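We now fix the convention by which a protein and its fold are recorded. Here is one such record, which you should read through line by line:

>
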Amino acid sequence: MKDTLRIIFMGTPDFAVPSLQVLLEEGYQVVLAVTQPDRPKGRKRVLTPPPVKEAALRAGIPVFQPERIRREEAIRQVAEYKPDLIVTAAFGQFLPKAVLEMPRYGCINVHASLLPKYRGGAPIHHAVMAGEAETGVTLIYMAEGMDTGDMISRVAIPIRDEDNTGILFDKLAREGAELLRRTLPELLAGRIQAEPQKHEEAILSPNIRREDEFVDWNRPARMVWNHIRGLSPWPVASTTWNGENFKLWAARIPEAAQAGGTPALPGTVLAVEDQGILVMAQDGPVLLTEVQPAGKKAMPVSQFRMGSAMKPGDVLGQKEIPNENKPG
């Protein structure tokens, strides 16, 4: 069956590449890769192809990059490849009904959460920011709603204290690919009974907006810490210092000896030392360990404090300003 089954793969970022590679490793016939158009990237806005495009071209797979997959001309082009199965992973566009109904084995999606939790475009970010103890990957049949289809299989992994969104992104990309490897033979053989989601338990995880990046120091310390690591290494949490944008790349909850017992208002800098900047949150301090002042690159606090005027008593986050220091 592998030699004759015609698969179209749809995906865009690095997360999707391992799933495409697994299909090729297992000997499936991937007849087309559909991905987003090339986009400007970095400070110099260089037009850059998506990772899935690069992986597909290396494997000799034709690539289609529609601006909108819902347009009739895009649907016609997909139909020309006569897919038996469509596999998607972080494609970034909704598939129209005409495409969903095209393949005889349906359309399946590799989604980076334990559905029905965290439907949407930023499931990893939101799981970390919410302080979840675990996350995972769910393989689902695609439906017209956002990540609402029946669940085919799933795998769970713990969210460890040392994890951030970037680390989990890589872990879940690998886990999703292996889940696809294990599940696909059973699915094609008709030995899997898909399970409907409990829609009343759904949690949405929309794409991160600029205003979501700003840290609220009035929240408990663990929530601030989860916020910072949930947005690292992109788009990166931010606050303000001396009226300028101040990005927060990494942090941790300090040990009791470091935290001290000095009461202070949320956002107040308690100490500036090589190991970090101690900042008061609602119920205790957070230790910032890697930061990025406006107009400079990210750096450990040991480097930042050598040329910095930051001192105990300074207050962070007094006024939100536009985030013009977005990493490329």
